[in-house]
Amino acid sequence: MIIYLAVVGLNKADKIGSAAGVVIAALGLLAPYLLPPRPQPVPAEPGPAAARTQPVPPGGIDASGAQGVQVNLGGTNTQTNTFGPR
Question: Helix or strand or coil: residue 71?
């Protein structure tokens, strides 16, 4: 390709290069619309209560499926946030 562009001259090589750049840029912009979509992974759903690893003590609260837990202990607040898989 370099030899061909050197033989045809700088003016014509510039025009060919510009035209090729436009075509490649257009294909890059249109590729997401022309290609088939990727399969999306199915998110894991939380299991049933029987699948817990540790039992909830009597009077306790099961917060295993919570993303944010705020606990008030003696007037002080403690907040823990968990996002995504554990």
Answer: strand
For residues 52-76, average pLDDT = 70
Report how far residue 26's alpha carbon sits from residue 30's, in angstroms, rounded to the nearest whole number.
6
Can you tell me the distance from the alpha carbon of 86 to that of 69, in angstroms, rounded to the nearest whole number? 15
- Cα-Cα-Cα-Cα torsion 70, 74, 76, 80, nearest 10 degrees, comes to -30
> What is the number of alpha carbons within 13 Å of residue 40 lying toward its C-beta?
4
Query: What confidence score (pLDDT) does residue 20 get?
Result: 93
At CA 57, angle to CA 55 and CA 58, rounded to 5?
130
> How many other CB atoms are found less than 10 A from the CB of residue 32?
8
| Closest to 64 (Cα-Cα) out of 77, 76, 82, 79 | 82
pTM of the predicted model, to two decimals? 0.40
